Amino acid sequence: MNEPGKRPDAGKRHDAIDVGDFVYAATGARVRRLTLPGGAHWFPAVDVCKELGYANSRKALSDHVPEEHRDNLETVTGSYGLSIPPGRGWRRDLQLIDLQGLILLVNGCTKPACEPFKQWCAEVIETVQRDGSYTLEEAEVQPSAPGAPIAYAMPEQIADAIVRLEERNIQADEQLAVARQESLALQRTTVDLQHTAVDLQTNMMEMQRTLVEMQREALAAQQAVALAMERIANRLDALALDRPAPAATVPVNPTTESVLADWRQRLSVTSDVWAVAVAIVPVLVETGELRQPLESIAARTGLSVHRVNDSLRMLRKHACIHSRGASEDGAPIYVLNRP
């Protein structure tokens, strides 16, 4: 730091303390900086206020920073004929503060990390008041290049603040690394769970397909059993109906009326069976046999082929008629049971 009344040449101006370290010690953070050709440093007010804990940057500037230590970006750069720095964060109307404005904001804040810097500022003022000047101690190791500026030792308060902040940053980095490792582990676990879920879904789909196949096989087996039972029943009916009819069941020369009367006494005649009986008895009495397709009988009675077949089965079961095979065209042949 220069003694009062001494002003360095602008062309040779340099910072006795690195401005980055100085601001870091003052605010506890790395803040964006705009350094002009003359060596002056300007900082976005919103960045400084955020790091120092001010909720309202406009009010903070009004309360702590005089107008001569703040300006907008366009005016500051325009005084040197500079263009606006690239990037969305640098707007023409962005409010900037100079280094003195930054120090004023630091002195007005209550952030604990700024206390060492405030104590050093108080020490500087006390020393100037007492001795008339404040001089930084020269560093033990000086630059060897010809014309190089003198290197000064960093004040103890600022150095301690930087060390504490760096330690805090190291701890934060370590915590961040641990958090990232935990996040990666969680992501791997999530991926494993997703793979397990996919495997479970695949197994469930296989089980469902197997169940469907088992159901199909069970249905086919049930159908086969039903068909076999129907064939057995038909065979039993045929065996029972092929036995000779009791004597005097039907007169030697039966008539349509006598046959129908005999059948009515022999079995409980339903409407379907009676309709079939009325349709086939005249043919049986007249020709001695019935050679008509079931469809023909169904058409004459108005019944379905299935109901006609059931009715004929009932008549065979009660020994009213019996089967003699089938004709050349496939029509079943039935004859009356005679004594």
From TrEMBL:
Residues 162-224 form a coiled coil. Residues 16-132 form the Bro-N domain. It comes from the Bacteria. Pfam families: Bro-N (PF02498). InterPro entries: BRO_N_domain (IPR003497). Transmembrane segments: none annotated. Keywords: Coiled coil. This is Bro-N domain-containing protein.
